[in-house]
Amino acid sequence: MKIIENFTNTSKTDIEKLKEFDANKTKVFKYITYKKRTEQEVRKKFRGQIEEQMLEEIIDYLKEAKYLDDYEFVKKQVKEYMNLKTMSIKEMRYKLQAKGLDKKIIDKYIDNNYDELKQYEEKCREKIKARKSDLSEKEIKRYLYRKGYKIDE
After folding, report:
1. E strand or H helix at 116
2. Confidence check: pLDDT of 78 > 90
């Protein structure tokens, strides 16, 4: 936290810089507490509004304080998808990447929870088949394929 560490003498510019840092930190904090956000979403939202170095320090501070944690975001987002939607693992991965999350973080979560996700995906496949029972088997397989499910012949 360079801004705080450099705050040794109490010149007016240092005090103003510290006030600016605190005001911007509060602004970012409000943004991420309103709705869980990714680090990339924070960067995108405040790029141009907050000086780059200051934004980096704010993000570092929020990460240290565990307010901004992309792995936890993936964990919560996947749980939400599982509770509300019928998504394949592939579709979840795509949606998470679209939010700007690092592929390594997504893959780490999926690898650590693969058995649970695979079970969920099988249940979803059965729900979709039951819901689309008016379609032919071939049409159902095409639909599942488009949604990212692996098709067994």
Report:
1. helix 114-131
2. yes
